[in-house]
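note to self: dont lose this again. the chain is below, predicted strucutre after it. 254 aa total, dont forget to put it in the shared folder this time
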Amino acid sequence: MPGEFAVMSTLLQNAAPAVSQHQSSQRSAPKAGEPEAALREHATAVRARRRQRLALDNAQADAVYIVRSGLLGIEAASPGKHRQLLELFYPGDIIRRSLVPDLPGITLTALNVTEVWRLPGRSFDALLAASPEQSAHAHRRLADQHARATLHASIIGALNGDERFASLLVELGLRLGAAVPAGISIDVPLSRTDIADYLALNPDTLSRITSRFKARGLLMHLGGGHTVLPAWDALLGASPVATTLQALHAPRPA
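---
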């Protein structure tokens, strides 16, 4: 692993508390009584179907989205090129228009059935200013998301295809997985094209990597997007940044 990447990995690990290497559970949406709950009366609830795009343009001013359930992705497309999946957002994450780069064809897309709260940036700021607890919570969320985005960029720049794929499976296992007798079960909302784009891989290369993981007993596809990770510890060993992923993606108190 390049020296710079090892340093980045160490810094990101130190940014969040360590969790057990055997832990794998989906981070749930905020519950009533948690800091986000007070925002509800000022927000508009939006339910999006799979692949529906949410408004993310200048007409929305500085809109803020708070993810309640499902999975969202930031996508961009340069003229004449296919779309690129840049970032994933899970329940509890905050998406603020002013923090999204102005890239060509930028969109916010629901990758499965998703519910968000939407409110104007000014309202969001006023609510945070009125509550130090809410402000601290929101800043922790945004800091976590920035660390995840930085790690993802490092993964793309420093790891080979197998290591990238293993790292994504670890992330999805931590966020969306449930323990079953056969291993970690996931209903993967990402298409093969989504995964190839997110990992900056050619689709044919991704197919070969997937076949290798199946042969190694690290992955089972059961159809309909349903996937099982039969050997969690071995999968962690296949990702050079597994410990960092666990620190950034494991559930923790608000």
